[in-house]
Design goal:
This protein is α/β, with parallel strands linked by helices. It is 35% helix and 23% strand. The chain has one domain: Ribokinase (UDP-N-acetylmuramoyl-L-alanine:D-glutamate ligase, 3-Layer(aba) Sandwich), CATH 3.40.1190. Helix 3 runs parallel beside helix 4, helix 6 packs across helix 7 and helix 9 packs across helix 10.
Length: 311
């Protein structure tokens, strides 16, 4: 039986537009496409894990507003339980303003956390109870920081596996590092956390060793088109990117990776096999538009892994 995955994190509504290039400061340009839909790193990773085959409990916080209702309707359509989602009577549901460059498929994002940055002390007993009922915890840094500290430390106290996607990157306490089994930064996040500019595998190795010295168990640094650098504390590998179809939108690729990696661990895969599963999940996600709606299903991921001799 798969291990139980608790995803704790953010939900924001994505407001996404596509353009030919990004505007300069003070410039207004015309876009060619707009879509409103579910997003937020926590939500994206929960959807990615659920579609990839994990047994997922998701905890976030929504406003009592139209965007919050839209989120609840989305989870019901995905067969993701809304039982442990908290409704905030004060703050509005968060939002992300996303611009995607049609020429490069790269993106720029501004996140307004809203309700999911308003977890309170009163919320924590319910959240920590669910931690105790889980086997693996996956979280990010898109909510307010105190509940993240509490969730990770509580998970470690109870012997759970913990995975942190440190995005958006910000300072992390030493005691929090010691509660992280696997950390999954991209190059920019790794540099912010370690002070090491990550341009290639050698730099990634140096940054990974800094994170290990802080107490992290394993490090996976995502390198975009160059794949990922993975280090379990003893052995390191570069796992190439998997791009089975043309790339159309890189938004949410890191979330797909973290959700896929965690799912693979919940299924009992070894570290490097789990990383490859995460790479395939991310590689499929960028071939579709959007964030959560672009997350692939387990059958798609396994097919790609077989085709690339990674399964």
């Amino acid at each position: 039986m798969n291990k139980r995955v608790l995803v704790f994190g953010s939900y924001v509504t994505d407001l996404c537009g596509r353009t030919n290039g990004f505007p300069a400061v003070g410039e207004t340009i015309k876009g060619h496409y707009f879509k409103l839909g579910p997003g937020g790193k926590g939500s994206n990773q929960a959807v990615a894990a659920h579609r990839a085959g994990a047994y997922v409990t998701f905890i976030t916080k929504l406003g009592r507003d139209a965007l919050g209702k839209q989120a609840l309707d989305f989870y019901k359509s995905e067969n993701i339980s809304t039982e442990h989602i908290i409704i905030d009577d004060e703050e509005q549901t968060g939002a992300a303003l996303i611009i995607v460059d049609e020429a490069t498929s790269q993106n720029q994002i501004v996140v307004i956390g809203g309700a999911c940055e308003n977890f309170t002390d009163e919320d924590m007993p319910k959240i920590l109870t669910q931690v105790e009922k889980s086997d693996i915890v996956l979280t990010q840094l898109e909510t307010n920081m105190q509940p993240i500290r509490m969730v990770l430390k509580h998970a470690k106290k109870h012997g759970l596996m913990t995975v942190l996607n440190p995005a958006p990157a910000q300072p992390i306490d030493d005691e929090v590092y010691r509660a992280i089994d696997i950390i999954t930064p991209n190059e920019t996040e790794a540099e912010i956390l370690t002070g090491v500019q990550v341009r290639d595998a050698s730099d990634a190795r140096t940054a990974a060793r800094v994170l290990l010295e802080k107490g992290v168990g394993g490090v996976v640094i995502t390198l975009g088109e160059s794949g990922v650098f993975a280090f379990d504390g003893k052995e390191e590998r570069i796992i190439d990117a998997i791009a089975p179809f043309p790339v159309v939108d890189t938004t949410g690729a890191g979330d797909a990776f973290s959700g896929g990696l965690t799912t693979a661990i919940s299924k009992g895969m070894e570290f490097f096999d789990a990383v490859a599963f995460g790479v395939a999940t991310a590689g499929l996600s960028v071939t579709k538009y959007g964030t959560a709606p672009a997350m692939p299903y387990s059958e798609e991921i396994e097919e790609v892994l077989k085709a690339t001799n990674n399964l």
